[in-house]
Amino acid sequence: MDFFLSGIMAITWQQCVMYAVGILLIYLAIRHGFEPSLLLPMGFGAILVNLPFSGVLNQTLEGLSEETPGIIQWLYEVGIDASEALPILLFIGIGAMIDFGPLLSNPKMFLFGAAAQFGIFFTISVAVLLGFSIPDAASAGIIGAADGPTAILVSKILHSNYVGPIAVAAYSYMALVPIVQPFAIKLVTTKKERMIRMDYNPKSVTKSTRIMFPIIVTVVAGLVAPASVALVGFLMFGNLIRECGVLNSLSETAQNDLANLITLLLGITISFSMKAEDFVKVETILIMALGLVAFVMDSIGGVLFAKLLNIFFRKNKINPMVGAAGISAFPMSARVIQKMGLKEDPSNHLLMHAISANVSGQIGSVIAGGAIIKIVSDILEKMPK
Fold it and tell me: Which of 284, 267, 279 is nearest to 72 (CA)?
């Protein structure tokens, strides 16, 4: 009887909190369809890693001198800790999904991929003022990009103490784009601004341009922000597979089978960082709150930049809502902007403009991640030991 009760007696209140967090994530995935391929495995993994004496974690059993490997800890150590392989490989699938045609036919939308990263740097400053270390502050800020793989990679490379909360926040806020973004946009726009109409007259984009684009972006990003090469390079490699025209079956595999499998594994693997003793802290709540601030400020930054441009370009005004689509949550953010536009004016279609800003945000977020890694690494090197 003692054998069966030992596990129950070993449960702590912090572990009970994590069971509740896991169940909440599973509920959001199933009941509301919020990023189910990620939130469901993360939620289930949060329960697994917090079971007393859990077999999914490495442990030394009584009477044995050697450590018995646990599957989730092994996946974490191999796929994230040692090489960051899982989040990077996911970018191949993401790149294969993206059609850069609308962006290439309307290049000015590149600006919003940069403007909508404002919240990242704003939040880093706030986090430092609140007493967080520079690596933790930078990792909290990158949540604002609404790009889970980039958030995981940055927090891991910078050795943040909050990899788990950052991953949960990044993916949760990605899932909550339809709720958070309309709130942020309405804070800084008027109904009249949200009704601005934008004509869509796309220029034809040649196949050569589509093929050269991922190559050029990789080279430029590698020269400007070398630390972003792994992220940008694999994203653009996936897009090159899509656009080359001779690897159609591999492109479909990358978009579906590879992306889904890596997403599933990444979700349950990151739960290793959701152990109760590391997760249930006041600092965790602050990190997740800062991530929400970053996300909201990213959206607001894109909107305000669009309003600034409208001061100088009065003839062909930009609907400010399009600026908010410059975050990395593709294609959810673009769909939100389209729905908001139709709500204000049923004949105003903003989807293709929002898509252009949204795919630009994919590039902007990974370059911002690489830039943050480089900047923070340089700062830490110059600080006295």
Answer: 267
